[in-house]
Amino acid sequence: MRKSIRMYLLSMAVFGTIAPFVRRISVSSGELALYRAILGAALIGAYLLIRRENPFSAKLRREILLLLLSGGAMGINWILLFEAYRYTTVSTATLCYYFAPVIVTLLSPILFREALTPRQILCFFMATLGLVLITGVEGRGNLTGILFGLGAAAFYAAVVLLNKYIRHTAGIQRTFLQFLAAIVILIPYVASTGGVTLSRLNSIGWVCLLVVGIFHTGITYCLYFSSLKAIPGQSAAILSYIDPLVAVLISVTVLHEPLSWQQALGGTLILGFTLWNLLPERQKSQQRG
Which of 25, 141, 163, 218 could form a disulfide with 88 if both were Cys (CB 3.0 to 4.6 A apart)? Predict the structure, then answer.
């Protein structure tokens, strides 16, 4: 259990360090998302091959459309997040991106007929207030970058919601198939928006591309899913907040990007109330006990 928690914490911390590498890769966001999907799929495919796990189950045909849609949403999510990093600070982009759980909470009653509790409603409004504080600071963060961050959050929420309908393909196999689906979606997009421009990369760009594709995607997703199955869902949800905290810390201390007190307060509201929303209510936890 402790080993799994350490692996999970490491994967979350690594996810939070991706932005500085993305900024050193001088290709379009769509092209970068494609290379990330290709490198990630290659490494995860090798991992599954070594473990003799077959992702192409007999029940795959039932969920092929959902996997294709979720893989496409994942690819678009990456594109928009990478664009957000280019137009605004890493902390602002990350905090806007973590508005995704709020979107999931808001849409769940519509899609799954889940009633909103008073606490969920409060969390929604307070997280939205946090977003207003982040976006309302003049001279801090570009509006275009904020919109890209929110767009990434919307597509990440779409991935989460689509995954709720995928019941026969679980864990790392699902992610491998979603990466393949993302590749299928991204190839025509990249071909129609500039094509392959790898020749523009210098030595640092190549190193950063390999780090993002192999380390941040392939290796880290393997760590993530290998540890996730041994950690309770609630604990995993809480520990996942290492990702945005590391990203904000790197933004301020390594990249020396500005973070006003209004933005810090807004980020605290988003992360704090989203985290509270993930925790079980007392009445429900007593009934389970």
Answer: 141
N residues, the chain = 289
What percent of the chain stands above pLDDT 70?
91
Contact (CB, 8 A) for 31 and 212: no
Q: Read off φ and ψ for residue 241, nearest 5 degrees.
A: -75, 0
Whole-prediction pTM: 0.85
Secondary structure letter of residue 215 according to DSSP: I
Calculate Rg over the CA atoms of the chain. 19
Contact indicator for 275, 241 with CB cutoff of 8 Å: yes
pLDDT digits (tens, 9 = 90+) for 18-31: 999 999 999 999 99
Residue type, 135: T
Give the separation between CA 25 and CA 118, rounded to whole angstroms. 45
User: Domain segments of the chain: what residues?
Assistant: 2-278
Burial of 115 (0-12, 13-18, 19+ CB in 10 A): exposed
pLDDT, position 136: 67
Is the CA virtual torsion 11, 20, 27, 188 positive or negative? positive
Helices (H), the chain: 2-15, 18-22, 29-50, 60-87, 90-97, 100-112, 118-135, 143-163, 171-192, 203-210, 220-228, 233-239, 242-253, 261-278, 282-288
Neighbours of 262 (CB within 10 A): 15
